[in-house]
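Final report, Chapter 2: Outcomes

The project's central promise was a pipeline that accepts a single protein chain and returns its three-dimensional structure in a standardized token representation, suitable for archiving and comparison. That pipeline is now operational. To close this chapter, we reproduce one record exactly as it appears in the project archive, with the input sequence first and the structure output second.
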Amino acid sequence: MRSSSASILRSLWSIFDASTTGTLSESELRQLFLAVLLMADATSEDAFDVAAYVGAADAMVASFHLHANAISLPHFVSWTSASWPLLHTVFSAWMAHKCFASLPSTRSTYMAPRLSHPSDILSRGELIALSGQSMQLQDTWDRLYTSTQDGLSFNRLCYHLLGYAGPTLIVCTAMDGATFGAYCDTPWKDQSKFFGGPGCFLYRLCPNLLVCPSAGGTNFMYFNTKGVALPRGLGLGGTTSKCRLFFDEDLDDCYTALKCNTFAPGSLSLRSSFQIQTLEIWGCGGAASRQAQKGYRADTADLINKARKVDKAQFVSNGFDREMFLGKTFGHGTDAARIADDEQ
């Protein structure tokens, strides 16, 4: 029989509440968060670098203080539900690994994500924090786009994003130091209407952790690269005239808003307008989604090649067009025939 998430959180809390007062100091709360982040990687064979987790633990402490004045168990359960909903699965998976790892039927409730390439933005602790938001983020993350190598170009971003048939994670670091982004539960498609589902959420990792889940609206994802009447760019939440998070087609007039009808309120960036320092997009749909993108690119290339072909036989059959556009090509033969006729 599985324990409830609340009972698992109480068990975790009791480990750090040695005095059984029902409250923790800020230092003890930081130790709790750091311990859980390290538990997430307990089964990894890689060497631990604790420094890679400390920043995320500090961001969680800062987030907790914005959520509650006292560090008590009820506030901890409430904060976890809003900001790290799968924290209990990390602890239960760690306990199962320690106690029942030898049993062949043991199935972990949490799997730490793996990256196809190193991230230029995310620390290991921040990656674990994000993986605690959705089960879909507990698998291999394929790097689809990075401004560091692909260039800060909207065209390049579109190329690497379109055709991928799974959920994606946007990660952005602004020039002012804020790190934020969005999880998108639906494959991206180029159109002038909103799409997506309630699995989408917005988030901020630095300077403190903030998660903005769906809040009842339907304007989740927006991706318009061709339309003239509506803004061209990539957005989430809000409306077509004012998204909650928006990356314009030049990637130099990006902005965020404090609230919208689709996601819970909260400030993502430190300023409403921001300049991108580094931008990454990760695919979270596994091998099948990457394979689908390869097929999409092959089909797109085939359509482009067909569009470029010209029916030369039909083109040159028209005497005027042949003389007008291909005169130099066919002129020599025409002149030779004319001279031969004159000599007869």
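Archive annotation: The first helix runs from residue 5 to 16.
This record, like all others produced under the grant, will remain available to the consortium after the project formally closes.
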